[in-house]
Design a protein that fits this description.
Helix content is about 65%, strand content about 0%. It has helices spanning about 5-35, 40-60, 70-90, 90-95, 100-110, 130-145, 145-150, 155, 160-165, 180-205, 210-220, 240-250, 255-260, 265-270, 275-295, 300-315, 330-345, 355-375, 390-420, 425-435, 455-470, 475, 480-485; strands at about 385, 390. This is Trk system potassium uptake protein TrkH. It is found in: Cell inner membrane. GO terms for molecular function: metal ion binding; potassium:chloride symporter activity.
Length: about 475
């Protein structure tokens, strides 16, 4: 293995910080417009980001991108999410809005990873610039800060494919035909277009423009941060709930398929097997949840039962984390359903976290194949997706990924219970953070927050959020001695 290209890593990190500086300027403009006291901490953060960005970029300016491989890409991506969360927490911490570093880092990591778990008890007390920044970091994290950087890579020089591969792992879908930079630009184009459409639709309802922008950011990112303490339930509007439900579903679809849909190639969308499974899982879960809520009297009429159940199913399945109802009183049956949905999640290539529907389909088909082999031991029964046989290597990787995913959740549950966290909270919090879903169970349910957890547990969950967002191996590989050997 070749020597690590440290200059390339510095250059890419510098580029990330410079780009993030531009996003902070937008938040400063919002704070200035609303004449809030958050202009100063946001401005301090912008200065720090720009200084670090220029310093790192100059250190790596002469980096030779030809000698940058997957190893450099994985390190850069992991460091980007970890370090940007430290820099992104500065407006909360410097402004005194979140005084505990563990809380501030947890809140910011939850934003960048589009988890939506929060430690804030009074969100509406925050000034507009901070609320906008909180939504903006989720919007960036949705389709990936790395993908945005790759889109601008021609301006700064190569290294695109290593970053793209490390951040946006997929398992079954074909790539675009053009270069990686063109892929990233088109993904961001679709992302921005959908965000604009949802903003207009929400603004046409009871939301003002500020709330519409913030909620469109966090809906398309399947993140779930709201500007209100009661989340989406604040508006008590069926229109808002249905609009957000639809766009949560859209955010959980592979963005390459959405791109081809806009190009007029409808067949790719409707013939995609992963999307069909995702659709039928959603419909099945909604039917079960609606029946459970209505016939057990948790809501007074069928339409309300359907609307509340549909919203909570979609917010769990798409790992968004919004709330229109507290599902904790709905009992252990719905808790189990919610945890299962959080694990399965949306499609590969979407803004969702979790296992992904594509991997779940491969697991199910592998299981069925093994049952068939019990009665036909000499038969060759390949796992098929979209009519094509899935290579054995990919099936193996899905099995390994699924094992590591469950094992990681179990280890973190042990750590949280060791730290004094209750069993319900440990299970719900670890599954939720590993799948980037947000709300958990018990005292960290959809109408509560994570502020009551010990600091150590918040650091563990922050690590879990980042590892889950980067599809596990990108982060965990860094802890293997063999990864660093030349």
């Amino acid at each position: 293995m070749s020597q690590l290209n440290i200059r390339f890593i510095f250059k890419m990190l510098g580029l990330m910080f410079i780009l993030e500086f531009l996003f902070v300027l937008v938040a400063i403009a919002v704070a200035f417009y609303y004449k809030g006291d958050d202009v100063y901490p946001l401005s301090q953060t912008a200065g720090i980001m720009l200084a670090l960005g220029l310093l790192f970029y100059l250190i790596g300016f002469k980096a030779n991108e030809r000698y940058a491989g997957r190893r450099e890409g994985m390190i850069t991506v992991a460091l980007t999410w970890a370090v940007l969360s430290f820099l992104g927490m500065l407006p909360f911490y410097l402004g005194g809005y979140i005084t505990n570093p563990a809380d501030a880092y947890f809140e910011t990591m939850s934003g960048y990873t589009t988890t939506g778990a929060t430690i804030l008890s009074d969100i509406e007390a925050l000034p507009k610039g901070i609320l906008f920044w909180r939504s903006l970091i989720q919007w960036q994290g949705g389709v990936g800060m790395i993908v945005f950087t790759v889109a601008l890579m021609p301006i700064f020089g190569g290294g695109a494919s290593e970053l793209f591969d490390a951040e946006s792992a997929s398992i079954t879908h074909d790539r675009f035909r053009p270069r990686i930079t063109q892929v990233a630009k088109r993904l961001w184009g679709v992302y921005v277009l959908l965000t604009g459409i949802l903003t207009l639709l929400l603004w046409a309802g009871p939301m003002d423009l500020f709330d519409a922008v913030c909620h469109s950011f966090t809906t398309l990112a399947t993140g779930g941060y709201s500007t209100k303490n009661a989340s989406v339930a604040y508006w008590n509007s069926p229109y808002v709930e249905y609009m957000i439900t639809i766009f949560m579903f859209i955010g959980a679809i592979n963005f390459t398929l959405i791109y081809f849909f806009f190009k007029g190639n409808f067949k790719k969308l409707f013939h995609d097997e992963e999307l069909r499974w995702f659709f039928f899982i959603a419909v099945g879960a909604i039917s079960i949840a609606t029946s459970w809520v209505y016939f057990n009297g948790f809501e007074t009429d069928f339409e309300t039962s359907f609307r509340k159940a549909t919203f909570q199913v979609m917010t769990c399945l798409t790992t968004t984390g919004f709330a229109t109802a507290d599902y904790v009183p709905w009992g252990p049956f719905f808790w189990l359903l919610a945890l299962m949905l959080m694990i399965i999640c949306g499609c590969a290539g979407s803004t969702t976290g979790g296992l992904k529907t594509g991997r779940f389909v491969i697991l199910v088909k592998s299981l069925l194949s093994e049952f068939k082999k019990q009665t036909h031991p000499h038969a060759v029964i390949p796992v098929r997706m979209d009519g094509h046989a899935v290579p054995v290597d990919i099936v193996r990787r899905v099995l390994v990924f699924s094992f590591v995913y469950v094992f990681m959740i179990a280890v973190c549950c042990f750590l949280l219970t060791l730290n004094g966290v209750g069993f319900e909270e440990a299970i719900g919090g670890c599954v939720s953070c590993a799948s980037n879903s947000g709300p958990g169970l018990g005292t960290i349910g959809p109408v509560s927050n994570y502020s009551g957890l010990p600091d150590f547990s918040k650091w563990v969950l922050s690590f879990l959020m980042m590892t889950g967002r980067l599809e596990i191996f990108t982060v965990l590989s860094l802890f293997l001695p063999g990864f660093w050997k030349q």
